[in-house]
Amino acid sequence: MDSPATSSQSAATLLRRIPAVDELLNRPALRELEERIGHRLAVEVTRKVLQSLRDRISQGSVAEISPEELEQEILKEARTAAGFSLQPVINATGVILHTNLGRAPIAREALEHLVEAAAGYSNLEYDLEHGERGKRDVHTERLVGRLLGAERALVVNNNAAAVLLALNSLAEGAEVVVSRGELIEIGGSFRIPDVCAKSGAVLREVGTTNRTRVGDYAAAINERTRVLLRVHPSNFRVVGFTERPALDELVELARRQNLLLMEDLGSGCLIDLRQQGIQDESPAGLSLQAGADVVTFSGDKLLGGPQAGILAGKREPLERIRKNPMFRALRVDKLTIAALEATISIYLQGRLDSIPALRMIRISKDQIAVRAGRFAARVSACPGFTAALRDGESVIGGGSTPGQALETSLVVVSHRQHSAAKLEEALRHGNPPILGRVEHDEFLIDLRTVNESEEEIIVQAFEKAFSHQSSFISSR
Ligand SMILES: *Cc1c(COP(=O)(O)O)cnc(C)c1O
Hints:
disordered N terminus; 42% helix; four-stranded antiparallel sheet; elongated; 19 helices; Aspartate Aminotransferase, domain 2; binds pyridoxal-5'-phosphate; 3 domains; seven-stranded mixed sheet; single chain; Aspartate Aminotransferase, domain 1; disordered C terminus; alpha/beta
């Protein structure tokens, strides 16, 4: 062991005391590491840790060198270097379909079906009954048909792809009529006018930002018009003096003029969420019942399944879409088909709480408050911490249900010495990373998006946060 920290240890002395790479790698824990990740990577991470130590010595921020601390640093660095970049995190933000955190977590059954389909061979494109080539569409089409009453259904990579593919198949070189109130941009640079342009269709804007009537659509129709497009406004809401034609009116206009009515529903809500206070999401089945020819929606928003874009509707337009060579470029793999098939099966069986996103939406504030109370008591027992409950809001996110929130019970966590920003950072840098919310200098945890089994991990993270600081980075 090195001598205890004294301010008399000069930088030169400390630099001389830095152990050699080989010496460190000969420590039992690191020998084991070397066996696990290989000599080259072990040397690389050790060198990196020693270089950072040298830098800190030069800055005068090191009091003492401890080989034990170095060993821990090297093991931590090796976990990062040899570990995956994509890793699970705990979402304590209360944003259910958090786009940056992978939107919807998929159901356990979906996961199991996916593993089963991925680990071996499957009848992905094989008709077992007739012993001949089949189509990958059948697996999901059957279920979407039953659930939504669609004659045909196709699955592509995401809803952006579904809209692009549908417009290209149905209106390339022709005109598509869209209300100015629906020319939206959603995150990730998906803009309706741009997608329309890329599809080769010509956009014909009608109405105004806040008011569009069915007569505005009618007046824009000419011999080049093929599609009336209705778009769910997703992530914004126009309030006040507004008007939008009812779907029935557009269906009737499309019929009369022999045009197709297409609706981009965005979030893929399949059930009525009005009981949860969610008003603006019209279930996809209702649009088809009302007479829309084609609807498109995402698989990983309110539907709560894997990333996918679903096209459903009438036979004729869907068959044209299926024949488009672009379909081949946008189609999904067996993993997505398996996860989506299992997710839709859960809907058909009415077991909505088996779908994580729906379960999180449907938990009541009171249920969350009970958990939050127990959780806050445990956090308050961690040295330096206090936790209290406060009424607040969770959001669904993922560009759905704008302006609508779910009531929740938040846990406000504070620390005797450290700011909310420091708390946030400490938890974010943990293993697994835990993401909370910082609002007005307060650190907030919303248990709505946290599994009960994850509560223990969060409490442990608070226990460990700030409890030890490595001696060679401790400041003087
Ligand atoms: C989210 C959304 C899209 C894009 O869906 P992705 O599945 O993310 O590609 C398109 N249109 C609307 C209205 C949306 O809300």
